[in-house]
UniProtKB/TrEMBL annotation:
GO molecular function: glyoxylate reductase (NADPH) activity; hydroxypyruvate reductase (NADH) activity; NAD binding
Protein name: Glyoxylate reductase/hydroxypyruvate reductase
Keywords assigned: Oxidoreductase
Family statement drawn from the similarity comment of this UniProt entry: Belongs to the D-isomer specific 2-hydroxyacid dehydrogenase family.
Annotated source species: Menidia menidia
């Protein structure tokens, strides 16, 4: 008999096609991509399902798992991040979890480089000046920024994404890659010739500092006043991981007082960041609406991987990408 599944978003077509053609599931869908399923509706829809395909806007916590009931055996999230999942609860209930690493590494690395250059070379300010009459003449120090050539790039959390970012930055003649993590990652580090350093050293030495870690209790608001105070006044901070790793009040302070030169953020707390947020008033802060993996190719690959993980999990087979709880 068919497994019952709820899909919390109108996901890209490749994944939906896989579910439809599987002959394995009967699924219901929140048929919109513009607004997330309301929590109340979600709690009703999950009642009795065997599987759930979700995105990162859905909190998969005790309340939801209680509402779903004992049939639920697979959660498949269309994301590499899993901070929206209560892993302890899932583990205790023996629920398996699929996610979508690797397929998004190229897209995230590309976007991170784009955001870094946009921030360091002040591109948003520059286009604004050009179209609003600020372009009086060619000026010697106007809109000057910071270059990658001969710089030290620091990576906080060296995983596949950090490596992919470094590989793309190396041709810009970066002088040195350094990284910090809970422990050295020699296999990954040697691919990019990166030196393992303490967090303290990372903050002090980096001209560009990219956050590439997962959000966990250990990394929550790790970028705080103390962290920013050690960074160079000429340094650029980039975050394409999770907004929760940053204390945004402390970041605002660091940017507005010139403690650091600029910040490029693809992720914030909350999301969306209210348009009245003080960070939006700063010229040296570039804020994107969480689009790092947003290429057509990658989002379809994530959709397909999430669908396949779900189907495999429901058949009690190993998933293509499964979290070890
Ligand atoms: C995006 O942020 C993801 O986790 O895939
Ligand atoms: C996750 O860390 C990835 O690189 O896909």
């Amino acid at each position: 008999s068919l497994s019952r599944v709820y899909v919390t978003r109108q996901i890209p077509p490749e994944g939906l096609k896989i579910l439809k053609e599987s002959g394995q599931v009967q699924f219901e869908l929140w048929d919109s991509d513009d607004v997330p399923v309301p929590r109340k509706e979600l709690l009703q829809k999950v009642k009795g399902v065997d599987g759930l395909l979700c995105v990162l806007t859905e909190k998969i916590d005790k309340e939801l798992l209680d509402a779903a009931g004992p049939n639920l055996k697979v959660i498949s999230t269309m994301s590499v991040g899993f901070d929206h999942l209560s892993l302890e609860e899932l583990k205790n209930r023996g629920i398996r979890v699929g996610y979508t690493p690797e397929v998004l590494t190229d897209a995230v690395a590309e976007l991170t480089v784009a955001l870094l250059l946009t921030t360091s070379r002040r591109l948003i300010e520059a286009t604004h000046e050009a179209k609003t009459g600020g372009w009086g003449t060619w000026r010697t120090l106007w809109l000057c920024g910071y270059e990658l050539a001969n710089s030290t790039v620091g990576i906080f959390g060296l995983g596949r994404i950090g490596v992919a970012i470094a590989e793309r930055l190396a041709p810009f003649k970066v002088k040195k890659f350094i990284y910090t993590d809970v422990a050295p990652r020699p296999e990954l580090a040697k691919q990019i010739n990166a030196e393992y350093v303490s967090m303290d050293e990372l903050t002090k030495r980096s001209d560009f500092l990219a956050m590439c870690c997962a959000l966990t209790p250990e990394t929550k608001e790790i970028c705080n006043k103390n962290f920013f105070s050690k960074m160079k006044k000429t340094s650029i901070f980039i975050n394409t991981s999770r907004g929760g790793v940053v204390n945004q009040d402390d970041l605002y302070e660091a940017l507005s007082t010139g403690q650091i030169a600029g910040a490029g953020l693809d992720v914030t707390v909350p999301e969306p960041l209210p348009t009245s947020h003080p960070l939006f008033t700063l010229k040296n802060c570039v804020i994107l609406p969480h689009i790092a993996s947003a290429s057509y190719t990658t989002r379809n690959a994530m959709s397909a991987l999430a669908a396949n993980n779900l189907l495999l999990g429901l058949r009690d087979e190993p998933m293509i990408k499964e979290l070890q709880l």
